[in-house]
Amino acid sequence: MTIASMAMGAAHLVARQEAEEPLDRSKCTLDTCIPELGYVPNLGGNIFFLAVFAALLPANLFLGIRRRTWGFLVGMTGGLVLEAVGYGSRVRLNSKPFDYDSFIR
């Protein structure tokens, strides 16, 4: 199968889905619907990065307060918290690929 034929097949599938009535995402499975991301996030990798960012947070807080680097502390803490929240949402998305309640839209 060539790349052009795969692209035409994907375009036909999208056009067919847009022409039909809106999908009820609560009834979707991986066999019947395509996730909006186009893939299901990897559970192991996302748990690993969630653990890494969560483990770096206390160390960042300790060193930021001890060294009195307030601007760096605020920026890095905010970044670490947002990364952890994002990877936590991806972990949740792995088990429910059509439920976007864990993301802010």
Protein model, in words:
It is a single chain. The protein is mostly helical and 105 residues long. It contains three helices and no strands. It has helices spanning 3-19, 43-67, 70-95. Helix 2 packs antiparallel against helix 3. Mean pLDDT is 79; it is low at 6-12.
| Number of extended strands | 0
Distance between the termini: 37 Å
User: Low-confidence stretches at least 5 residues in length (pLDDT < 50)?
Assistant: 6-12
Structural class: mainly alpha
The number of distinct helices, counting runs of at least 4 residues, comes to 3
β content, as a range? under 5%
Overall number of structural domains? 1
The topology string of helices and strands comes to HHH
Let me know the average pLDDT.
Answer: 79
The percent of residues in helical segments reads: 55-70%
**Biggest sheet character:** none
